[in-house]
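Changelog note: in this version the structure field was regenerated for every chain. One regenerated record is shown below for reference.
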Amino acid sequence: MANIYYDNDTNPELIRAKKVAVIGYGSQGHAHSLSLHDSGVDVMVGLRQDSKSRAKAEADGLKVGTAAEVSAWADTIMVLAPDTMQAKIYEESIAPHLSAGKTLMFAHGFNIRYGTITPPADVDVSMIAPKAPGHRVREVFVAGGGTPGLLAVHQDATGHAKENALSYAYGIGCARAGVLETTFAEETETDLFGEQAILCGGTSALVRAGFETLVEAGYQPEIAYFECLHELKLIVDLFYQGGMNYMRYSVSDTAEYGDYTAGRRLITEETKFEMSQILKEIQDGTFAKAWIDENKNGRPWFDTERVEQQDHLIERVGLELRGMMPFVDPKVVKPGE
């Protein structure tokens, strides 16, 4: 059985006694920084001199310095820059200031798992990974709740890496919901697989294929949008509340019958085989190498694919329909963003 820790398993005073540097002020960076600050922790945000986020972090009441400055100042350094930027930031700004006994932390194990960052042996290396986007982590914290998180210790130089990481989890609210113990490898591999096979890749492709099937059969794009994309949230909310059983309990018997008969026709043994291949490419580093190389080469394929996907008919139709439903709090992504 998994080890799961909660607030009463932590010592909040450990993290309150630390000087914590948070590298980055994006989705996760702002959530960690502000929640730690609200929990009574001495926090400093590390950003480039020309970063657009500097003014925002300062307006939010936080101290700001460069990544090198905050790394020299802190005894706990949480790296929350994008995966593809972390190795460069580490080599240039963090590594020179990683003296013995400090703690290097991550919210995703990518760079440790694939060896693009190799910390010295005399520092603690740990992970607290909230299982939610950063904006949601912050919203739930402010509301008095928490998002579940993962805990991993890659290197325990001081003998206190785990208890310090759990204290950090308390500071950002994860211990309110539960912190599950794992490893850097398990977190990285399952996270990448979930993103690719289900949460992003699998879901996006299924929604798009369903939309295209209806439109190509002559149905109105607006109807196809509602059926294949808009209503998905209603089903996912039921999953979230009570699993697949509650979803099936909540829908009509006709929908439940269609679930049992059609689902296995779409997700076949061939599909599961491709999932296993995706997992193998994550495990053996094939995916990581391709993504690292793509970034080193300036992202030519990625940027082209992003623009093409943003201009799909389902996006154009959805933009118009969401604009008529202000209650869904519609968001607009500009082409190329």
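Spot check on this record: DSSP finds 18 helices and nine strands in the chain. The longest strand covers residues 124-130.
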